[in-house]
Amino acid sequence: MIRGFALLLLFQLCGEFISRGLDLSIPGNVLGMGLLLLALMSNLVEIKWLVEASELLLSHLALFFVPAGVGVMVYSDLIAREWLPITVATVVSTFVVMAVTGKLAQRLETQEHDDVD
Amino acid sequence: MWTELTATPLFGVTLTLVAYMLAQVLYKRLGSVWANPVLVSIASIILVLKLGDIEYRNYAHGGDLILFLLGPSVVALAVPLYQRRLQLWKRKLPILVGIFAGALASILSACGLAWILGGSREVVLSLAPKSVTTPIAISIVEKIGGVPPLTAALVVMTGCIGAVCGPEFCRMIGVTSPVASGLAVGTAAHGIGTARMLEVDRLAGAVAGLAIGLNGLMTTFLLPILMSVTQF
After folding, report:
1. What is the ipTM of this complex?
2. Structural domain boundaries of chain A?
3. Phi and psi of A45, rounded to 5°?
């Protein structure tokens, strides 16, 4: 468990180092995910070292967003001022994205399967 | 003494965990998607802070400790990706095309609608990366000239909508495969949507996790191009 957490933090730190060093707009944790994936694929890191820690974190992923959401209260005035464009754009666009991505991906997926068959 | 106590990390961490625990109990009892634990905990914590006249920055001393765990959790998404790499590699075309189309649709529909409804330039730009995970969205908005705190709020709003309605909406429009529905919710609603998909199906959750990173990358590159094409 400790080994898993240490590895996750170590890869996040490496990602953070690259992100800041090269002044990238991709955050360190996303780079860390990419680096860990590469390390797993090149057998530098064994998957069994990580399973326990990552399962624990990922099964509570939703919890970690709660404090960020509470931060909304600080900007309630800003949102109240332009609530109509903000609300409509956010809600409608979220459904548009799900429909576009979901439908397109499913169509391409079935096409590829048909080609194989 | 009360004010002093609420400024300790102990208060923020305890309040968040208790609120989340109660929200999970409520979610299981009601069985309604609207009782989404993230949404209910956020609302009830805000209510407690308002009623108790507690400042957000005091709560944040504890809140930030919990938020810290988001970092290693994003790194941990490499584990389900690695475990399902063969299934995902076989579907690389639908995955890449789906996320690209979603990133484009997100920018165009969010900015277009806000612009038509008379949103200010700041609001329109702040909406552009609303489907991108918070840390990437903030760095994008700083570069294009929106309002980073507003973007952070919009990103969380978007995530909650996707988490609450995503799986049901996908079923309604006939998107039934785990890969396609995971992509849809992950691309639209980043980490909060991914958390919900991990509960629904592990493969869908792994794909959603991949979509967080790829949508972030694609939006980062797409936005400056779209802005120069539309001369916005």
Report:
1. 0.89
2. 1-59, 67-117
3. -125, 140
Q: What is the pLDDT of residue B174?
A: 96
Among A27, A65, A109, select the one facing B91 at the smallest CB separation.
A109
- Given a cut of 70, whether residue A47 has pLDDT beyond it is yes
Q: Does A72 score more than 90 pLDDT? A: no
Search chain B and give the residue with CA nearest A33.
B75
pLDDT band at A116 (very low <50, low <70, confident <90, very high): low
B127 and A89 Cβ atoms separated by less than 8 Å: yes
What digits encode the pLDDT tens for the residues B44-57? 999 999 999 999 99
Positive or negative, the CA dihedral A73, A65, B171, B103 is positive
- Mutation target vs B (from A20, A26, A38, A70; most B CBs, 10 A cutoff): A70
- DSSP letters along chain B, please? -HHHHHTSHHHHHHHHHHHHHHHHHHHHHH--GGG-HHHHHHHHHHHHHHHTT--HHHHHHHHHHHHHTHHHHHHHTHHHHHHTHHHHHHTHHHHHHHHHHHHHHHHHHHHHHHHHTT--HHHHHHHTTTTS-HHHHHHHHHHHT--HHHHHHHHHHHHHHHHHHHHHHHHHTT--SHHHHHHHHHHHHHHHHHHHHHHH-HHHHHHHHHHHHHHHHHHHHHHHHHHHHHT-
Residue A62 near residue B86 (C-beta atoms within 8 A): no
Instruction: Measure CB to CB from residue B101 to each of A50, A61, A100 and give the nearest one.
Output: A100
B139 confidence band (pLDDT: 50, 70, 90): confident
- Residue linked to tokens 């399973």: A51
Q: Which residues of B touch A78 (CB under 8 A)?
A: 147, 149-150, 153
